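[agent] plan:
  1. take the single chain provided in the ticket
  2. run structure prediction with default settings
  3. attach structure tokens to the ticket
  4. add a short note for the reviewer (M.T.)
[agent] executing step 1
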Amino acid sequence: MSVPDPESLSKRIVGAFHLIPEQAPVRDYQGPWNKLLNYLFPPDSAYTVIPRDYYPIVATKEQSGLAAVDAENQPQLWFAKFEVQYESLPVLLVLVATPAVVGAPLARKLADTETRRQVAALQELCPLPKMRAICAFGPFMCLFTSETTSSESEVGIQPPKIDAGEDSAADVAPRDRWSSFLTPEGQIMVLEVVQQIKKECEAEG
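[agent] step 2 finished; step 3 output follows
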């Protein structure tokens, strides 16, 4: 399979991400991601891009290490959720948070945990050999994959889960797992994911 050309992406698509400041809330990134996904999976095709929930994940005391802080006052991370379906079945999940916190280990930990939970819940419904998910902080993306023949467990999800044990300060979701869509390498990654999804969908008939 040939490597996709990032030049195939419209400058207006990439430019939509450039227009949003990194300190902007996640709601501001819903537009660029919706634009990108509908460009990659056109509405007049067998694919449907569905904007799902906008919701927060609240850290547990174990995750944050803030044992003295009440549960309702623990740090939280807001997500915008998109699901791409092929003939009404999920083939790609996209979770988007604000890039303002991509440098925070706790935010990445929460995003990593939530993405694994969502992938495990959807992989049984996915008609393809692999269920894929993009966990994004604005334009910064980490790709998750899971073999759909496995059980509903999170064990087989890639990249591998890092077990920190009881060390709440451990970085279980390293920053270098997130690459930028604003770079040619990041754009190629997205295009390759879409290319593979479409190839597998065609094989399914």
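[agent] step 4 note for reviewer: The chain has one domain: 9-63+77-160+172-204.
[agent] ticket updated
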